[in-house]
Design a protein that fits this description.
479 residues, alpha/beta, Rossmann fold, 3 domains, four-stranded parallel β-sheet, two-stranded antiparallel sheet, 14 helices, 10 strands, 11% strand
């Protein structure tokens, strides 16, 4: 079939697989030690006017490198599978580096040797280490990922068995070589062939006997059974045949699982289930996000109080009508609430039909145009945050009438409501705000909202808030 690699290529790939942990861990250690040494030289040259690298610097470098490598090893980060995708690598490296520094400081405290090392060198090493470690890890992932796709590194040697359409569908959908799998051989089951239908059980037994002989000769790490999960009888027969071989046995995923990024086996007592999705935020994450919202929203509200009063007075003087505008929006789990905004238009629509604001909209007041341009009309939503109806960061809530319209047009649109809506969000800091006069514009905004839900962290919220205040994109397309 052309799946199996040559023996020379296979041997080299296996050699890399067995020694990759040593290469990656040694790279981490060498980079950290070199970085600490250079930081120490630069620090002493800047502060004392002389280059200095002594025994203490070497001790510091060895300690930081050892702790960092140890933590990565304990977490299993040096396994080849962790280097086949860039997803999560930056966050992982940053997290381990933070833990390393905390552990280092704790050791200094417990050993009462805090004065032994230069605080300036330690702090500088930590700060410089963030980009250095992240860049090193990214370079390693890029190199190893390319090597795995070209067959120079193999994470696992795989034997495939199943009916030809199922095997080919699995190979075409997942392209196992892209995750470092080397397909050493394929065995097709032909027990349902019309020409052998007189005795399908005997045909299956014959196919499996041949497959086991071939598998034993090829010595793979794993056997992948490519059959529909509903074909339990044939799957049981395959498992029984390969249980006598020293291999891991896998069932290839059903097509439905391709929709989900992280399906997970869950064991609850004697019950085992395949979890396809989970709540977007854990209980701890919800508590952390809520605490951050309350503290930050209260602080912003206090600091901006003079500005809020000034804006309220300007609105009253500019046009007749209320200072605050309230409109129905969908919140968490599609629970309706009324959002607070500074009134920026001569109308206060909140019915079944709401016309979106457009560029140079005559309904926008003079002061309203200024408020919308700099997002100041959103400030009263801090009250919605404090009452728990909104978060500082999340998918922007739309008018209920618009939500109902787009839910009919865009798949999984309502998934935006799996977290609380926000005053600002991932889509907004990428310039996706203002009028959505086409379904394509809204679909793109929804895609960014879904990405935020799937990748939430408190650091992402902080980054979005900073970009909201400082990035030009956050102010694009204001109406």
């Amino acid at each position: 079939m052309g799946f199996a690699p040559s023996s020379v290529t296979q041997g080299r790939a296996n050699a890399w697989r067995h020694w990759l942990w040593l290469v990656t861990s040694a790279t981490d250690a060498a980079v950290i030690m070199l970085m600490v040494g250079l930081v120490s030289l630069a620090y002493h040259l800047t502060v004392y006017g002389a280059l200095r690298a002594d025994q203490i610097t070497l001790e510091l470098a060895i300690m930081l490198a050892s702790i960092f490598v140890f933590i990565n090893a304990v977490q299993g980060r040096y396994q080849l599978a962790n280097y086949l995708s860039a997803k999560g690598q930056v966050a992982s490296a940053f997290s381990v580096w933070n833990i390393t520094m905390v552990a280092f400081v704790a050791i200094l405290f417990m050993a009462k040797i805090a004065d032994h090392y230069s605080r300036g060198v330690v702090v500088a090493s930590y700060l410089v280490g963030i980009p250095v470690i992240v860049l090193t890890r990214s370079a390693l992932v890029a190199s190893i990922s390319i090597a795995s796709k070209t067959g120079r590194i193999t994470s696992e040697r795989v034997f495939l068995i199943g009916r030809e359409p199922d095997v080919m569908s699995f190979v075409q959908r997942h392209q196992p070589w892209n995750v470092g799998y080397a397909i050493v051989d394929v065995a097709f089951l032909r027990s349902n062939d019309a020409r052998r239908i007189n005795d399908p059980a005997a045909a299956l037994a014959s196919d499996l006997a041949s497959a086991v002989v071939s598998c034993r000769q090829k010595q793979p790490d794993s056997v992948f059974i490519a059959l529909p999960w509903s074909d339990q009888e044939t799957i049981d027969a395959c498992i029984g045949a390969f249980m006598n071989l020293p291999v891991a046995i896998h069932l290839t995923p059903e097509k439905i699982m391709d929709r989900f990024e992280r399906p997970h086996i869950v064991h609850t007592g004697s019950l085992t289930s395949l979890r396809l999705t989970r709540p977007p935020l854990s209980a701890a994450a919800v508590a952390l996000k809520r605490t951050f919202d309350i503290i930050t929203a209260a602080l912003i509200l206090v600091l901006s109080a003079p500005l809020l009063v000034l804006v309220a007075v300007a609105i009253r003087l500019d046009s007749p009508g209320p200072v605050l505008f309230r409109q129905r929006r969908y919140g968490f789990n599609q629970q309706a609430f009324r959002i607070f905004k500074f009134r920026t238009m001569t109308t206060t629509d909140d019915g079944d039909v709401i016309v979106q604001a457009t560029r140079n909209d005559p309904r926008v007041t003079r002061i309203g145009r200024l408020l919308r341009r700099y997002n100041l009309d959103e400030l009263p939503q801090l009250l919605n945050v404090l009452t728990g109806q909104m978060s500082l960061v999340g998918p922007r809530p739309h008018a209920v009438a618009h939500d109902q319209e787009f839910e009919r047009k865009i798949a999984l649109y309502a998934r935006r409501h799996n977290v609380k809506p926000g005053i600002t969000g991932w889509a907004q800091v990428h310039g996706l705000r203002g009028e959505t006069d086409t379904d394509e514009k809204m679909a793109k905004r929804v895609a960014f909202d879904h990405w935020y839900i799937d990748n939430w962290s408190i650091w992402l919220d902080i980054a979005i808030l900073l970009r909201t205040a400082l990035s030009k994109k956050a102010f694009m397309n204001a109406r």
